From TrEMBL:
Protein name: EamA domain-containing protein
Entry annotated with the keyword Transmembrane helix: yes
Compartments in which it is found: Membrane
Sequence intervals crossing the membrane: 33-50, 62-82, 88-110, 117-139, 145-164, 176-200, 206-225, 237-256, 262-280
Organism: Flavobacterium suncheonense GH29-5 = DSM 17707
Amino acid sequence: MKNPRLALLLGIFCISVFPILVKWTPVSALSSAFYRMAIAFAVVLTIVLLRKKLEFPNRKTAWLIVLCGLFFGSDIAVWNIAIQKSTATQATLLANLAPIWVGLLMFFFLPNKPKRNFWIGAALAVFGMVVLIGFETFYTLKFDIGFLFGVLSGIFYAFYMLLSKSVLRQLQPISFMTYSMAVSAVFIGIICLVSGEPFFGFSPTVWSVLLVEGVVCQLIAWLLISYATQHMEANRVSLSLLLQVLFASIIAWLFLKETITFQMFVGGCIILVGIGITFYKKQEA
């Protein structure tokens, strides 16, 4: 695929299905997260070995890959918990506060500072998220464990986005994802062992869902998003991932009967406008 924006859009749609599957499937959040990583890793490793496409990173890049795997594994683990403790829409929304954390990290630690259009678009997108989730939740500080884990997921993902941008300058997306998913699978697997989460005893239907999570929601989705990250600015990619909220809301409404109110519709539209503003300057070039 030659168009990074199209790759980003398709990748976002694939991962938007994931919260619905986690919410619907009777499996613990951590077990689901482990098999998402493990299945995707097993498939991609087979592919790269057969095609002899696996690149070998240098020592510095290898350490960055380990950090990426740890941050991404943490992101998926706490996001799964947030999904099961709240709604698919809210958990997806809160996890996608990542653009704010990415922008702040870039502002404080990187020479490539976010431009004015990013901050305007980000502010508008955040306002849209507040509208979508409801002003009362923020005004009364009615934040439960699902809310906190959703926010934490976004923070973990922000670190992953910035680190992965550096790694993707050295490796092709498929090699990076192979190593990163290996680290994530091992990391989450250790957490499952320590916490006593089940690895087996699932029904054939559940195994089928776990397979979809690993192949579609993880492998295909993140190969597409990694390709987009390689060719676009990290903050713009992360902000575009807010589209997950809209996709996940629609899918949750169709299959989980989660209600989409007029307020949520308005908030989603504001989010889309905010994302469009961040791309405005680039379109002028």
